[in-house]
Amino acid sequence: MKWDWNAVRDFMPHFWDGLLVTLEAVALGSLLSFSLGLVWTLLMRTPTRWVRWPVGVVTEFVRNTPLLVQLFFLFYVLPEWGLTFSALTTGVFAIGLHYSTYTMQVYRAGIEAVPVGQWEAATALNLPRQRTWTAVILPQAIRRVVPALGNYVIAMLKDTPMLMVITVLEMLGQARLYSQQHFQFTEPVTVIGAAFILISYLASLLMRALERRLVR
Amino acid sequence: MSADTPLMKDPEPRAGTTAPGGELIRLEGVTKRFGTNTVLDDLDFTIDPGKHVTLIGPSGSGKTTILRLLMTLTQPDEGTITVDGQRLFPAPEKQVREVRKKIGMVFQQFNLFPNMSVLRNVTEAPVQVLGMSKDEAEARARELLELVGLADKCDARPTRLSGGQQQRVAIARALAMRPQVLLLDEVTSALDPELVAGVLDLLRDIARSTDITMLCVTHEMGFARDISDKVLMFDGGRVIESGSPEQIFSEPEQDRTREFLGAVL
């Protein structure tokens, strides 16, 4: 086995395409999982059983089935019911939904960690319920959970290669395609491996900076 | 304190101000249990507007629970509570909110909002609840923060302040809602000893210069003697003795009161 710099150079245009798709999937997947997770958490706190029960069942189900199965289901089964989305859209939705069932637990822990005195002060000041959530509880809860959410961004990044099975050409997809066409595996796979390390590291730096900014 | 401090009687009357002579707070047959432990046992008492009433007694005797009931932070198991003629439990949400507007509370642990500046801690509720404009709320908040001696800390985060400073912000925050009643729940218990005097002096000022009804739970007997019109001695969820501070502190009738005062004084 020998290292061929020409193969690296030839692969790079495909790499950039793949990188863009990977970053897009992570960014949109994160946004979706962060917002959907918060929605689940808040729904789980409504007083009505008829809301909590279905939300609980659905999120348990999603959390306890493999992301890969969900991808297959959304991409190959939904179209049979007339629901067709692009491969990337499906992938982002699947990642976002799957990870929202984890972020909801992170948010719940964050909300429960806000001291009860904060609720009491809000009551004593007669703040409306919605304002208590948006101005007092959530800002404090979210601040506490930024590190945990950051870990899930990195986990999502590492799960993006699964999108390959639903034809999304993210980094691994591009590497595989190139390898199969040129019979050179070492260079493209090494390049994307290095890219994953680099992105994870940069993301963790970013999260740490954000954490420092928030925890003042 | 000068005559134009923000605490002096407002030019416009507060909403729903009680007619003179009427009682402001009435508790009737109030019982509160936590599990098998009865914290308040068939309690009756009334408080007239503008009076300063201090609740004393050993820990666990139910003093704080009374404040928490009035602030609607907890509910009684039996009995009725009325504030300014309006019943509190059970009552529709709207009425509860009306009653809460008349009551402010200062907590042992301050409970300032750490995610907001000192100024916003004080302006948040007036803007959101009273519908005050942001400018007006800020102007009033600055006056109140000056009154409590923290005019220079408007932009600071509460966590950067000492305990005594935080408690003074909490007092300003409660006063910003122009309450008729101020509930003070062991407000100096969490403070370092050297910070206690500043907070108590501020409360003495407020007691002297305003017509706010005050209900305080405290272990500071000197303070209680200074500001109180009436002292209620609690034990086992009941008021075992009540009277003027002179009476309670100098010639208590009950052995239990004598014993308690002997232990804390």
From TrEMBL, chain A:
Keywords: Amino-acid transport, Cell membrane, Membrane, Transmembrane, Transmembrane helix, Transport. The keyword Repressor does not apply. It holds the Pfam family BPD_transp_1. It comes from the Bacteria. One of its GO terms (molecular function) is transmembrane transporter activity. InterPro entries: AA_ABC_transptr_permease_3TM (IPR010065), ArtM/GltK/GlnP/TcyL/YhdX-like (IPR043429), Ectoine_EhuD (IPR014341), MetI-like (IPR000515), MetI-like_sf (IPR035906). Its main location: membrane. One of its GO terms (cellular component) is ATP-binding cassette (ABC) transporter complex. GO terms for biological process: amino acid transport. It is found in: Cell membrane. The chain crosses the membrane at residues 20-43, 81-99, 189-210. The keyword Zinc-finger does not apply. Gene3D superfamilies: MetI-like (1.10.3720.10). Residues 19-207 form the ABC transmembrane type-1 domain. It is a multi-pass membrane protein. Belongs to the binding-protein-dependent transport system permease family. This is Ectoine/hydroxyectoine ABC transporter permease subunit EhuD.
